[in-house]
């Protein structure tokens, strides 16, 4: 009696078929033939595609390849302008002067890299889609500055070269860090290194095609007006494709904007949105990180994390203020007219601020009713109006997990996390609860 055996890959496709007839040394094998086009695609796609990556991988990589192609052409036009500005082809230009321009630009751009990475490094991962798009805005701005260098005298040229170098440094930091975060999102089976390697192969092919086409363009286009017009068109294509790329990504982590959208939808309709639904609503360019509003949108404001000193000492003139303390955080709320501002200081031992952010969205949502009779009306029976209990929050968080959200990733804090230690200042034990998301009862409230 013959039996069949199959070698399969991680996607379940058959690589080789073996037939065992039961007789010694009679095992027959037959390898599965892969069409040439499919074999070529396999060289540029992660092993086991599409089962080893998220569903938004292909759309992102397609748009990302198109934007890289347009960028390759614009970079050649910009580089030609820089070489002209440095004196290539001009016998009257000084090699020493060109070298000084180059060294000065490189020095300041490297300093800018260090400063930007120090200042914004913590914020890039939570807002990776924004910074991925911002990186290409920096890059295109630098290329337009490059086009100015041939027409400028020495000192203005130095300023333009330095400015373009700084923009490229900002682009490098933002692009590399945000790409790393996006790659981690796409990789489903611990294949992050292989996914990055395949992406490098994709970029190599696209860059080569862009250089070939760009070489023809550079050779054919000499008129300055045509160059500028072509740069504007290509930059428009470049940014459009990059915008489409980041819009296609459906992140599963909850940053400030996504968490606010999810919580607000639950407060409005009692429904938990999926990552796919939130991706269609979230803004890439808008200032949506931390923005909140009341149920009727008559009150709008902003929420942020801070230190205990920030929360307790800031009291601007004309603003009404009240604050309260829970087992995991301190919260201050200021309001003036139709605007409010919320600040949260997390206590030591609180690893995840998601529960505190939910409470902030909840407070903002009920501003319409809470402020009718003054701030004191926000509290009834020692509980804030509309306050959601711990049990309700656990039900909501469980529904969010079931909807596909990763609640373990802290994407809400965009700066170095600061915690408030209550006591004598010496290192003390952490809070008794194991999961800070599961414990957030109201302890004390105060009105100024």
Automatic annotation (TrEMBL):
<keyword id="KW-1133">Transmembrane helix</keyword>
<dbReference type="GO" id="GO:0016020">
    <property type="term" value="C:membrane"/>
</dbReference>
<feature type="compositionally biased region" description="Basic and acidic residues">
    <location>
        <begin position="425"/>
        <end position="438"/>
    </location>
</feature>
<keyword id="KW-0472">Membrane</keyword>
<feature type="domain" description="Protein root UVB sensitive/RUS">
    <location>
        <begin position="34"/>
        <end position="269"/>
    </location>
</feature>
<keyword id="KW-0812">Transmembrane</keyword>
<comment type="similarity">
    <text>Belongs to the RUS1 family.</text>
</comment>
<protein>
    <recommendedName>
        <fullName>Protein root UVB sensitive/RUS domain-containing protein</fullName>
    </recommendedName>
</protein>
<feature type="region of interest" description="Disordered">
    <location>
        <begin position="425"/>
        <end position="448"/>
    </location>
</feature>
<dbReference type="InterPro" id="IPR054549">
    <property type="entry name" value="UVB_sens_RUS_dom"/>
</dbReference>
<dbReference type="Pfam" id="PF04884">
    <property type="entry name" value="UVB_sens_prot"/>
</dbReference>
<dbReference type="InterPro" id="IPR006968">
    <property type="entry name" value="RUS_fam"/>
</dbReference>
